[in-house]
Amino acid sequence: MKIAVIGQSLFGQEVYCHLRKDGHEVVGVFTVPDKDGKADPLGLEAEKDGVPVFKFPRWRARGQVLPEVVAKYQALGAELNVLPFCSQFIPMEIINAPRHGSIIYHPSLLPRHRGASAINWTLIHGDKKGGFTIFWADDGLDTGDLLLQRECEVLPDDTVSTLYNRFLFPEGIKGMVQAVRLIAEGKAPRLPQPEEGATYEGIQKKETAQINWDQPAEAIHNWIRGNDKVPGAWTEACGQKLTFFNSTLTVPGSVPEGDPLPIPGAHRPGLVTKAGLILFGNDDKMLLVKNIQLEDGKMIPAAQFFKGAASSALELTEEELATAEAVRSTWQRILPNIPEVEDTTDFFKSGAASVDVVRLVEEVKELCDGLELENEDVYMATTFGDFIQLLVRKLRGEDAEGECVIDYVEKAVNKLTLRMPHQLFIGGAFVDAEGSKTYDTINPTDESVICQVSLAQASDVDKAVAAAKDAFENGLWGKISARDRGRLLYRAPPSPSTMPDPTAT
User: Fold this and answer.
1) What's the CA gap between 59 and 198, in Å, rounded?
2) Architecture of the 206-304 domain
3) For the chain, how are helix, strand and coil distributed in percent, rounded to 5?
4) In DSSP terms, which residues pair with 430 in a beta bridge?
5) 263-306 pLDDT, tens per residue?
6) Which InterPro entries does the annotation name (predicted)?
7) To 10 degrees, what angle do helices 318-334 and 384-396 make?
8) Its pTM surpasses 0.70
9) pLDDT score recorded for residue 376
């Protein structure tokens, strides 16, 4: 079947590629004009294949379709228009032109969440089910007949990005290809959308994303995650606008200790803790925010809100300088409109988008074998100089939240001084057991007492389990790939069991 693909983004690129693999002839691609010297991925891919690419800045003028646009479109002889993701308004003269009409991908279960911010509102409303719809285009706003729908579970801590990357992107590509296949086979349904349950919500913008604190914790959490990353849920506090990201409801146990953060209108002050910023709903339940963006645009871990200025700049070794230059070349490739990448060059202000974040992370991880790097790190260090400092600290193993304080017991054995921790290790810190309870640990060679070791109580076990659960659900280890975990294990020092026993005679 002869197809015209109208749209943009990586999603549009993947749909285009899969349609060609499925044997269809893409006779033309219509995408957005280049931005800051960068072409859209869909257009780039089509140009590589020699497919005609059109980048109309507009399709109509004074309410009338532009004749030259219609002429160029009609010359292609398309039998079907496929709109995987399109931010432009396409005239009905183009929509209705092909023999099979036009189909559109929409990231919600229509008729719920019509409009441009459908994923945001799926999360804001706390929907338990999400998904996508492929429908026949008409002259309404996401009101055309249904062709195909697929649904998925919405997880409690899903954000726009996680829901999109886990389901809406990969399954949406498959869905578009299947929809075209059904049309080609003459089996595509046209099911009128029901009006019962239909909703329409407007585009989420920064000015409308302010947090309403007079609601339960779950509703506040849904508002924050529904606006993460764009446009970002915000509030006024400490004399500036703070934007919150990476929210979770999985805060275990009682209220942790922390420094209070007064928030006008909030039910209770927030608490800046080691884990992040604890916020409270009007039901006294808690949520945890991991990242905060300051008014100047700088993103910081919420746990560091009261810690002041960052530590002094590192002096790089020759090897680290060589790595920095290699990374600079990566930035330059991703930001072709920038004549020269300097330390003050801001990744996002130079035209980078979320797709470029993924590319940067993958290329730097490949360059720095075994490095744990996440998309969040790019948002935390947006200028090249800050990114290199963050990168080098990670390579040196200095990126931990703080030095682990260990109260060692020292013992002289065979002319060696052994230093042994004797406390419980919970949540990344050595701590005494509740009530400072201890027991003697015995040297099996002579039955002498080596030292007193903390004796965990039931409450200590509860804390350890809660900390392990939080690390499993929210920690870095579960997010990095199996390949990177393997590299880290190979880099780990040998365990004490592989070392000579100093007490042996």
Assistant:
1) 29
2) Roll (3.10)
3) 30, 25, 45
4) 425
5) 999 999 999 998 899 999 999 999 999 999 998 888 888 998 98
6) ACP-like_sf, Ald_DH/histidinol_DH, Ald_DH_N, Aldehyde_DH_dom, Formyl_trans_C, Formyl_trans_C_sf, Formyl_transf_N, Formyl_transf_N_sf
7) 130
8) yes
9) 80
- What whole-number distance in Å separates Cα of residue 368 and Cα of residue 371? 6
Question: What is the domain class of 2-185 according to CATH?
Answer: alpha beta
* Alpha carbons within 13 A on the beta-carbon side of 196: 0
462-482 burial code (b ≥16 CB/10 A, e <16): ebbebbeebeeebeeeeebee
Q: What distance lies between CA 350 and its chain's CA centroid?
A: 20
Give CB contacts under 8 A, 24+ apart, made by 306-311.
306/259, 306/272
Q: Which CATH class is domain 321-396?
A: mainly alpha
Residue range 357-386, pLDDT digits in tens:
888 999 999 898 868 888 888 888 889 999
- Burial, 234: exposed, middle or buried (Cβ in 10 Å; 0-12, 13-18, 19+)? buried
Average pLDDT for residues 335-340, to the nearest whole number?
87
Fold agreement (2-185, 321-396) = no
Which helix (H) or strand (E) element contains residue 321? helix 318-334
Distance set, CA 281 to CA 239, 261, 269, 274 (Å): 22, 14, 10, 20
User: Regarding beta strands 53-54 and 129-136, do their DSSP bridges make them parallel or antiparallel, or are they unpaired?
Assistant: unpaired
Q: CA-to-CA distance for 333 and 37, rounded, in angstroms?
A: 12
Domain boundaries, the chain: 2-185, 206-304, 321-396, 408-491
Give CA–CA dist 225/87, Å, rounded: 23
**What does the chain come to in residues?**
505
Q: Which of 252, 318, 249, 260 is nearest to 287 (CA)?
A: 249
Q: Which ranges of 51-157 does DSSP label H, i.e. alpha helix?
A: 67-74, 92-95, 118-124
- Asked if 140 contacts 95 with a C-beta cutoff of 8 angstroms, the reply is no
Q: How far apart are CA 276 and CA 289, in angstroms?
A: 6
Question: How does the average pLDDT of the chain come out, rounded?
Answer: 88
Give CA–CA dist 244/277, Å, rounded: 9
